[in-house]
Amino acid sequence: MPEFTLRQLQLFAALPDHTTLSSAAASLRISESALSQAITALEKLVGEQLCVRRKARGLQLTPAGVYFAQRARRLLQDADALVHDLAGSSGELKGPVRLGCFGSFASNVLPAILEGLPRLHPGINIDVTIGTHDDLLPALDTGLLDFAIVYDMLLPAGYSQRTIYATELEAVLPPDHPLAAQDSVDLAQLADEPLIMYDTSPSTANTYQAFAERGLRPKVVANMPQLVLVQAMVGRGLGYGLLMTRPNSPAQTLEGRQVAVRPLDPPASQTSVVAIWPEEMRLSPRAEAVLGFAVQALHCET
User: Record's SUPFAM superfamilies (predicted)?
Assistant: First the structure.
């Protein structure tokens, strides 16, 4: 049976984050030759080439190397969890939790978590990564995150999940728009209106799907990669937006302009914001504590 050290795993697990051996060595604070020797030793143990090291082309992992790095990260997570689980057997949880959060609602959910958690678990340190599904799912799969808070829509198989709060599409309108006088809005009323599309995964596909289910197609006049830009353009009367409901969400833009938020009737894209993590992984007690607090805090504020 191959024998390797945790240090060797730590070194190799860091390689996917670097394009050259020298940058990896600098980040790991060891010499380039020492890192190269550690890689060679691992390759001898597993009997396969794990990476290609060429000065002109930099550092490139082989398919076996990518797989090895992913598994190494998970083994290191398990080792870290073991140590901190034992340290926390006295009742105090200590150590890091790497939390991913979908960008469009991060500003609405993270402050409540980051403010309240230290009062219950002062020994837990949260490291936050913000992104879209395209950013967060690969980070989960490679062990860079403990769990991620995302929309429960268009998710691939292979993830465990827990519901945090329910959500659905809402229309965001200029306050003087004729439809803003209504208590609710039908998608059919919006089809010919100029839509400022929140253009990110999975929001774009979800919006088109909501219209398609009604036999409609939106009139997209602009694609914005950030939610605040959608709101800003709506606030200036350039169109309307379709955004998922979020807790702690004021009806105004960053410029201080008002917007009118109206539910859709009939409702569209009723789904949930959920925490997800790979099925083959078990949440550490620290991650469980963070997730449990998030469910409690955000349920109270929705």
Answer: Periplasmic binding protein-like II, Winged helix' DNA-binding domain
Tell me the two tokens of residue 62. 């082989």
CA–CA separation, 24 vs 30, rounded Å?
A: 9
Which residues sit opposite 172 in a β-bridge? Answer: 241, 261
Pairing of strands 95-102, 147-151: parallel
92-165+272-301 and 169-269 have identical folds: yes
- Write down the CATH number for the domain with range 169-269: 3.40.190.10
Token pair of 119 as six digits: 């009062």
Q: Which CATH architecture has domain 6-68?
A: Orthogonal Bundle (1.10)
Q: What is the pLDDT of residues 203-236, one digit of tens each?
A: 899 999 999 999 999 999 999 998 899 999 999 9
Domain ranges of the chain: 6-68, 92-165+272-301, 169-269
Respond yes or no on whether the N-terminal peptide bond of residue 202 is cis (omega within 30° of 0).
yes
DSSP assignment of 2-56 equals: ----HHHHHHHHTGGG-SSHHHHHHHHTS-HHHHHHHHHHHHHHHTS--EEEETT
CATH code for 92-165+272-301?
Answer: 3.40.190.10
Amino acid, single-letter form, for residue 64: A
**Is the whole-model pTM more than 0.85?**
no
